[in-house]
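hey so i finally got around to running the thing on that chain from the lab meeting. sorry it took forever, my laptop kept dying and i had to restart like 3 times. anyway pasting the input first so we r on the same page abt which one it is
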Amino acid sequence: MKMKPRIEQSVVRLPRYRRYQLRNPISCTFSTSQSYGNNIPPESPHFIYVPQPLQPRAIPKRSVKGYLPPPRELFPRGAPDRTSDEYLAKTIPEPKSASQSEDTGGTVTWFPAEPKGSAPDSTTSVAWRSRLAASRRKNLRDALFQLKERKVSTNESRMAKSKASQEAREAALHAPERDDERLTSPTILQTMQLQHVGPIPDPNRTERIAGKKANVEDHQRKQREARVEALHTLYMNARNFIIEDGQLGDLIEREFAPKQNLDKHDKGNIWDQGPPDTLASLLGVGVKPRGKSSALGAGSRMKYIMERRMKQIMAELTGGKMD
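ok and heres what got predicted. didnt touch it at all, straight out
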C-alpha cells in the first residue's frame, strides 16, 4: 500500500516562515493588526504592523574620525606679492636661451615620460625637457593668479556680508519703538521712568570715595611700617648670624664642651642649663605633688611678664626692637 507523503516533505524547499504557516495555519488569526505582506516571517519585528509617523526620524550625523590639516596661507599679510613680476622672475625664471622654450598653446599640457630602453636623440631630449619646463612655469603662474583672484573675491564677499550685518544691527538698534510694543507696554509714571535713565543717583559719592581713599592710605602706611619693623628685626638678629666655618666650630666647642672643663662664670653651656623645660615650667606654674601651685612659679611668671612689658615699652620709645 502506497503511503501518503507528509506535508513536511512537500515543503522542504520552502522558506522557514512558509513552513511555519503550513504547520500552524491559525497562528496569525489572533492578531488584530493589518496584514501588509505575506513575505514577513513571524520572528521578524515587522510581523505585527505598527503605524509609523509621517515625519521621518532624524538621521544622526556620522562621526568622521580624524581631521584635515589647515590649508596653507599662500598670501599672508606682510609677505611679498606672489603674483608680481619680481616674485615670478625669482621663482620661475625664464631659460637663458630663448630657443630652448616653446609655446604650449595657452593650455595646461601633460607630457609622457621619456621612453627608456634606447638612448634618445640629444635634440629630441632637450626639446622634450624644455616643453616640460615651460608647462610647469605656465601652470604655476596660472595657479597663483587664480588663487589670488579667488582670495580677493572671497574677502570681498565676506566683507560685504559683514558690512550688511553691521548695518542691519545698527538699523535695528536705533529703530523707533514699534506701535505694538508702545500700545502693549505697561504704564510707567514719568517720575519713575527717569530713575531708569542714566546712572543711579548717589548723593554721598564724594564722602564715600574720600573715606575709601583714607582707608587705602592707612593700609599702605601700615604695610610700610611693618616692612621697616621686619628690616630692623633682621638687622638686630644679624649680629648672631654664623657666616664662617670658624664661628660654627667655636660655637659647637663652647656649647658642647665637657662639664669638667667649664668655667664657673660660663652659663651658656648646654650642660649647665639643666633638663629641658616642661609644659608646667613654660606656663610658669609649679605643681606640687598635692596639686597646689607654688609661689615661686607664680613669681617667675610675673617676672617674665614684666620683662617683656619693659622691652616693649623701650622698643616703642627708641623706635626699634630691643634684645
